[in-house]
Amino acid sequence: MATARQNSSSASSKAKKNKTLRIGFIGTGGIADLQLRLLAKRKDVVVTALSDVNQETLARRQSELPDTQCYSDYKAMLSREKLDAVSVCTPNILHMQATIDALRAGNHVLCEKPLSMTVAEARKMLAAAKSARKKLVIGFQYRYDPRTQYLRQAMEEGQFGNILYARVQAMRRRGIPNWGVFGRKELQGGGPLIDIGVHVLEMTHYTMGAPTPISASADMFTYLGNKPSGGIQSMWPNWDHETYTVEDLAVGRIRFDNGAVLHIESAFAAHVPDPSLMNFQLMGDKGGATWSPTVIFTDEAGHMVNKEPAWLADTAFDKVFARKMNGFVDHVLYNKPTIAPATDGLKVQAMLNALYASADKNGKEVAIKL
Ligand SMILES: NC(=O)c1ccc[n+]([C@@H]2O[C@H](COP(=O)([O-])OP(=O)(O)OC[C@H]3O[C@@H](n4cnc5c(N)ncnc54)[C@H](O)[C@@H]3O)[C@@H](O)[C@H]2O)c1
Asked: Is 337 domain-assigned?
């Protein structure tokens, strides 16, 4: 016979089983497409509504999800649909307003990276989540990567000692997006640094234990994106060079309040060996590491030793991205803790903005005040 305790726990697991997350999308372009495909694998998620100003994109998504309501105005979606959560997948310029509107309409929000265009915007988003008492999660999928989790735990165990230096690289040899608005500074806030550099910067910063940045300096170069793509074979030819106002290559330095220093290199286009490289390296007073290959460099038993995990969960992009989507759903629906609260986006935003501000001042170091 079942005890009262067993009965109540099976009742609560039944309640959990019956929970459903109704989600709407603001922006249904490339990354929303991936998010939608991954959410479709969950029985406890219903994609209720989609919004996009681009009718063609919206029609394409609607043909894939015929039961979903579609809106060209996201505000109409927010006021008419009964949603629990919203995913914000617009160009960066809209992250703040769309997120705040969705929160105020009573939704939990997953906002794609970067959190916003500026630190002031990021603060408004965090304040809106607090006053709406809703969850706000940032789309930092690389911290869900098993390699990052392994190195983060090694950091927590003290295997690196004090981390003195980090080297961050997000480099494409010729990978200027030929869709969307990734070349338009006024809509994205910048180029490769804020678009792909942000991923490696944030996972490195997370692995370092999120020290507080105090200053940054950077130099940025534009030499290819503002010209026609020409006859060179590359990942995405024929980008819109006429509207291209972002950097091709950014190199920067960040100082932290604990004395650590981080160097970052990020490019949409650079004459480098790899077509596409995402990696970081840590150097501490007790140990160091590279993310890929995933190796810890340390001293043990009187020898210099390289340690590698014998097994890691799948690190394929879609598998890692699925963990981010599942992390959001489980956080909102079942109250599981998230490893990507939007509050973690604030220091990252401050670093990005300070790097751009320094480049605007010909590389002069700028202070970061948080
Ligand atoms: N986490 C990742 O790995 C990753 C990868 C790619 C992009 N992103 C982020 O996702 C966001 C979108 O990027 P994308 O690649 O999907 O770009 P995209 O250009 O493919 O899609 C953006 C969509 O937003 C729509 N949009 C613009 N204004 C809108 C509005 N007012 N209301 C509703 N929709 C609007 C556009 O019409 C477009 O369909 C960016 O912030 C980008 O940084 C994240």
From this structure: no
